[in-house]
Structures are given as structure tokens and as C-alpha cells.
């Protein structure tokens, strides 16, 4: 069966040409080649469609969006999983490999092992849009911080380095605050050293997030106004212990230092670091009203859709390449109007992988040949 979609021909700079899995989730072995700009995995629920999209995400990011346990990605009663892909970046084709085992993970680019995560992330840029992403607006601050970290990390490898260092220092500082409280340690100089490191790495993270959110808000508002037929203006605010007026690294460091000084006694009593990017959040406002608190479900979903789609143009602006888009059964969660806006936004821009139980959501809405794979109990059959 062939389905036609309205998609103007345009060269896609970044695309995944091949995917290979071994002992990944419910796939003992799988090898696929992709020749179209739109690839659809069609089948009933719990057949393995999402596992394929997850494997592409894992290949790009080295971790899953569904679980924090790498063991869940390894096929039952096997020692390890293997995911590889061939990435076309216009002028070059790059093989990526990811090995998962009980001992940890190993990554390779062009068959050369990468010791640093920052040397691997960004070789394949992806944007995932799943039903749970519709709760980006209403979810916890932790969800929004994770969103920022994952997206900025693809664009800026240095951000990943700073983030890893910050998390390490934060853990050490919290442990030492506890030891001070329990009178097991009394070295104030060591605490000062940890605090200086926290401010150093934390300020860099805050600055990167500020700049990202500013650009994200620009693109998201443009999309949101189209979806709302120019009736609504969307604004995204980055909520931090550092004022929005602080736009330079020295200014952020100064405010961060002052904020830590103000909570010094409370931190010792509570034995935890009380300020820093690990506690930051995002606010979404439509016509100056907070969407999380006062927005309707429709407004919340439109905001989430605008933010996710804004990532496409933002990533192109920052990296010079459009990312690969992963749509995991999200069409069924959107009404007809939002479906059309989603499809019109991605037309001609990105290679898209889509999972669905039915073609009704996309049929007759676009018109270029789609590559369709039928998924049933971990087995895939092409057209």
C-alpha cells in the first residue's frame, strides 16, 4: 500500500539512512534501510513500534527517554545490546555505534571509540515528540529542566561538559553539607572551594539556558500565533535565582554568589544546596497569563506543540542542519487543526519517523510517497 503526502522536494541535510539493532528490547536482530523523507511504522499497540523510535533516540543521545535503566533496553537473557546507524550529513556519511552492557555503554563514531560524551552527542540530532511531551507545560520542573539539558546538549557539547561537572560538584557539596551538619567535618576552606566550582559551572549553564530559551521563545511564539490565528502571544520565561537582567557571565556569577550567601545558614540546616540551575524552571505565558495555572487544556497542548516544533528551526539556526524528527503516536493525541499545523511545519524540512496504529491521521494531508513498515510482535515487514 502506498500513501501519498503533500511534501515538497527539498534536500534533507541530516538523515538516518540505516538502522541496525541486536538484542535491543524485543528485537533479537533487525536491519533497516530508509529511502524516503517520511517513514511510518504501522501496527497495533505493544508490537514494538515505539522500541524502534526509542532506539534511534538512544543512538543519538546514548540514553532512553522512557527509562533511566539501561538494563531495560537489553533483550531478556542476553549480555548486551547493540544499536548502530548510518547518518547522512550532506557532504559526509558517518557510522555511529552504541554498545550497552551490564558494565556500561560504549560509543563509536566512524568506528573510533569516544571517551567523552560531548564528542559523541550531536553527531545525530533528533527531536522526539511523544504523547508525554504534551505534558511539558503541566509537568514538574524536573521535566522542563531535562528538556532544556537534552536539547541544549545536542547543540552545544561544552554545555554537556559543564552540566556533568556541575552535577558532580553539586553531589559533593550536598554530601559535605551533611557532614558539616553532623559535625563529621569542619573544613570551611573545602566548602568554599566546592562553592566556587558550583558557581563557575552553574553560571555557564544558566547563561546557556538563558540564550536558548530566548531563541526558543522567538520561534515558539511565531508558531503559536499561526496556530491561534494571531489571537494569542506566547512568551517563555526562564526562572532562575539569577535575575533576567543578568546577561553576561560575570553578572550571573555575581548574582549566583549573592544568592548562595543569602541561604548559607539554611543550607547548613537542611544539608542541601538551595540555589542553582538544578532548581530552575520555565514559565509559559499566553497573553501574559500563566498557562500552567490558568490555561485551558487546549492552550496547554498548543503551547507544548509550539515549543516542540520550534526546536526544529532553532536547531537549524544553531547547527546549520535540520534534525531528524521522531513522532511517537502523537497524531492521535492532537485534533485535526493541530495535526495540520504539525504536518505543515515539518513539510520539506526534516526526515520524519512516525509510529501510528492507523493512517487516518495522516492520510490525504500530505502528498509524497511514505515508506511504510508493518510491525507485528517484534517483526517488521516493508511494503
Automatic annotation (TrEMBL):
Keyword DNA damage among UniProt keywords: yes
MF terms in GO: ATP binding; single-stranded DNA binding
Name of the coding gene: recF
Record protein name field: DNA replication and repair protein RecF
Any one of the GO BP annotations: DNA synthesis involved in DNA repair
Gene3D superfamilies (alphabetical): P-loop containing nucleotide triphosphate hydrolases, RecF/RecN/SMC, N-terminal domain
RecF/RecN/SMC N-terminal domain boundaries: 16-380
Primary location: cytoplasm
Statement: the UniProt record of this protein carries the keyword Acetylation: no
Protein task: The RecF protein is involved in DNA metabolism; it is required for DNA replication and normal SOS inducibility. RecF binds preferentially to single-stranded, linear DNA. It also seems to bind ATP.
Location within or outside the cell: Cytoplasm
Family: Belongs to the RecF family.
Binding site for ATP: 43-50
Record key words, sorted: ATP-binding, Cytoplasm, DNA damage, DNA repair, DNA replication, DNA-binding, Nucleotide-binding, SOS response
Gene Ontology CC: one annotated term: cytoplasm
Amino acid at each position: 500500500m502506498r500513501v501519498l503526502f503533500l511534501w515538497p522536494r527539498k534536500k534533507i541535510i541530516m538523515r538516518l539512512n540505516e538502522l541496525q539493532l541486536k538484542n535491543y528490547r524485543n528485537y533479537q536482530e533487525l536491519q533497516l534501510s530508509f529511502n524516503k523523507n517520511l517513514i511510518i511504522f504501522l501496527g497495533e499497540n505493544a508490537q514494538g513500534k515505539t522500541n524502534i523510535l526509542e532506539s534511534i533516540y538512544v543512538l543519538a543521545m546514548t540514553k532512553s527517554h522512557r527509562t533511566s535503566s539501561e538494563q531495560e533496553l537489553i533483550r531478556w537473557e542476553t549480555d548486551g545490546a547493540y544499536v548502530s546507524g548510518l547518518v547522512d550529513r550532506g557532504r559526509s556519511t558517518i557510522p555511529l555505534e552504541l554498545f550497552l552492557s551490564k558494565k556500561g555503554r560504549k560509543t563509536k563514531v566512524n568506528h573510533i571509540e569516544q571517551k567523552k560524551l560531548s564528542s559523541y552527542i550531536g553527531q545525530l540530532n533528533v527531536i522526539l515528540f511523544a504523547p508525554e511531551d504534551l505534558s511539558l507545560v503541566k509537568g514538574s520542573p524536573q521535566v522542563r529542566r531535562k528538556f532544556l539539558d537534552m536539547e541544549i546538549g545536542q547543540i552545544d557539547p561544552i554545555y554537556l561538559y559543564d552540566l556533568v561537572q556541575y552535577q558532580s560538584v553539586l553531589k559533593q557539596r550536598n554530601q559535605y553539607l551533611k557532614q558539616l551538619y553532623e559535625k563529621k567535618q569542619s573544613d570551611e576552606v573545602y566548602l568554599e572551594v566546592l562553592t566556587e566550582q558550583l558557581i563557575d559551572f552553574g553560571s555557564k549553564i544558566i547563561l546557556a539556558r538563558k540564550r536558548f530559551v530566548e531563541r526558543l521563545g522567538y520561534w515558539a511564539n511565531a508558531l503559536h500565533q499561526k496556530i491561534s490565528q494571531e489571537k494569542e502571544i506566547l512568551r517563555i520565561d526562564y526562572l532562575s535565582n539569577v535575575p533576567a537582567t543578568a546577561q553576561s557571565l560575570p553578572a550571573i556569577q555575581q548574582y549566583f554568589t549573592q544568592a548562595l550567601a543569602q541561604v548559607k545558614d539554611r543550607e547548613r540546616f537542611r544539608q542541601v544546596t538551595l540555589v542553582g540551575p538544578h532548581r530552575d524552571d520555565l514559565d509559559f505565558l499566553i497573553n501574559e497569563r500563566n498557562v500552567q495555572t490558568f490555561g485551558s487544556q487546549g492552550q496547554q497542548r498548543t503551547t507544548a506543540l509550539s515549543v516542540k516544533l520550534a526546536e526544529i528551526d532553532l536547531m537549524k539556526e544553531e547547527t546549520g542542519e535540520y534534525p531528524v524528527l521522531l513522532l511517537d503516536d502523537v497524531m492521535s493525541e492532537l485534533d485535526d487543526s493541530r495535526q495540520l499545523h504539525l504536518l505543515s511545519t515539518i513539510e520539506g524540512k526534516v526526515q520524519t519517523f512516525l509510529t501510528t496504529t492507523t493512517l487516518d491521521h495522516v492520510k490525504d494531508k500530505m502528498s509524497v510517497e511514505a515508506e511504510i513498515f508493518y510491525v507485528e510482535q517484534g517483526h517488521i515487514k516493508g511494503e
